[in-house]
Amino acid sequence: MLEFFYILNVSLLLLHEIESGYEKEWEILKLPGKITGFLLFHIPVVFIFFYGLYCIILYPQTRWVFSLVIGIAGFIPFLVHKILVKRKECFNRLISNILIFGNIVSGIAVILIGIIETIKKI
Question: Does the N terminus or the C terminus of the chain have fewer Cβ atoms within 10 A?
């Protein structure tokens, strides 16, 4: 069950990041390096996404760590685009909101399932 929601949450995060490229998020957030910096930043992010799935499958004792990290990551698009740097012209499409709010729901599921599965193993 955890693997399913983990993959769902990461998929929604990656789709949001694809949209972030379309919206030129580096300009919105005034990030250094423009598109190059934006892409370089995502190398470790994508690595953590895949490495986390690898770890929760092969090393069940790490489930709670990666569940927490990826679950919390599900809240970041909402915090950034709906609270901290809210712009009416960006991330306001129906699909944008589905991705952002879907990340919150799947992030909560990942955190809760990760904690429950970890407690059951103790």
Answer: C
